[in-house]
Model the fold of this input.
Amino acid sequence: MKPPEFLQQRQQQIELALSAMMQKRQTRIPQTLWKAMHYSLMAGGKRIRPALMLEVYQACGGKGDIMPVAMSVECMHSYSLIHDDLPCMDDDHLRRGIPTCHVAFDEATAVLAGDSLHTLSFELLSEMTVDKDLTPSLVQKMAVAAGAQGMGGGQVLDIEAEGRVDLDLLDVERIHIHKTGMLLRYCCEAGALLAKAEPEVAHACARYGEAVGLLFQIADDILDATATDAELGKSAGKDQAQEKSTYVSILGIEQAQEKLQEMLEIALEALEPLEEKAAQPLVLLANYIVSRKT
Amino acid sequence: MKPPEFLQQRQQQIELALSAMMQKRQTRIPQTLWKAMHYSLMAGGKRIRPALMLEVYQACGGKGDIMPVAMSVECMHSYSLIHDDLPCMDDDHLRRGIPTCHVAFDEATAVLAGDSLHTLSFELLSEMTVDKDLTPSLVQKMAVAAGAQGMGGGQVLDIEAEGRVDLDLLDVERIHIHKTGMLLRYCCEAGALLAKAEPEVAHACARYGEAVGLLFQIADDILDATATDAELGKSAGKDQAQEKSTYVSILGIEQAQEKLQEMLEIALEALEPLEEKAAQPLVLLANYIVSRKT
Done:
């Protein structure tokens, strides 16, 4: 299944904005560092996080330009991938079909490129002009979602879980809510808040985001177990090789696929407070995540 | 020379606030990660950055509680030390007299503890309530000072300079303005802005901060060349061993000491727009940095 057309358009729009944003900064950043940041940030990827934010914003009736906020979360995601790939972490050599940052450059540069994209993420958020009064709250929400209480903590739980065979479904879910769910939740909540959605609607969008985060992970686990390196653009079958507890290792492929359908229903139910027509792209997005092949 | 008494009081006040802030978060962060963050953040240190901010705030007539902003910059500093010490960077084993984070824990935990303190820094900044309208601008200023255009970029310049013997004074100064000066500049400017100082005064404080940053570095270079491991609580004589270009390697000890006095005068002159009595602690602070032995 190809991405829906509106998502492809979003991706292009986001790529262009990211590229212009990086160009603007080129002369103010040491060259090697800029190249490493640019290399990882512009290495493709599905741009799901900013796309989700932009779609939620539109679905909630937002009409302004929230691209700085959308780019901000993509920089945050990109930083986390660079650091997760480091030799002392997952030691990955391939990402999106090309060498990972520390392989293409070196380890010190990769650490610093990750750090710099991390800081840039907050810099971009501070540049949002649609509703300046929301900035403190968005900075706080993004920091909690991305930091030790969220994504960063999730990575620690993930590392600690390696090689352990006694994990159950709740343990695995806890890892992924932290590692993926909270930042996706933030994306959707931020999109709704920026569009001045009613609290009930903003909360619904946040729940949708969290469900989409788990959807994403279950789909990833299934792909890791069933796809090839070439299809994925990264090393496949790694979970099993590393004896990692995943939805697939705990449930088996068939039940993992059932779980995926269940989670899709949860995501779609969360959208009920939104107008049906406005929510349509969010429905398509969730369906695309379930059926994507890479 | 012992730190002036008001600085010792500030340090205690900051230690207590940092400790309470970390305690509050303990149950919401995976245990290993929390311990590593706590280990590095609470491992002493002079707390010069938050102390400077609090003193500038007071010197400019501020009466509110800006401790979240002060703690924020200390978390930023602490993150940068953890990452700078990593094996792929400076590979340091000793910091403030105790093992560095990656030695006390492991490399992956140190990367993530640094990352988490980095995010926490922005989280704390978002919690400032003294003047919420200032938050976007402070987030932006701190991100620029700490990111690829500032401290992060400075670390890249520093790494690239290693082993090069053709650096001159301007090159070394450029490294340190980025690596140390810009964040100290931000501390002083933020203190003034939060106290609603006139633009001229805020600008003067910013210049004072940048000069103090260079003061600090020149003093560090001199200490590295003249003090022992035990006095410093870290490896001394490292600059020479690594053939690093420093103020001392380029100027020699005597001229580096003259440069230190010159920079002290620049820092003190910058304070002229402030009331003399109010500026007194800032004068003492600059003098202390020049004459400190550790």
Observations:
- The longest helix of chain B spans residues 199-226.
- The CA atoms of residues 15 and 42 of chain B lie 7 Å apart.
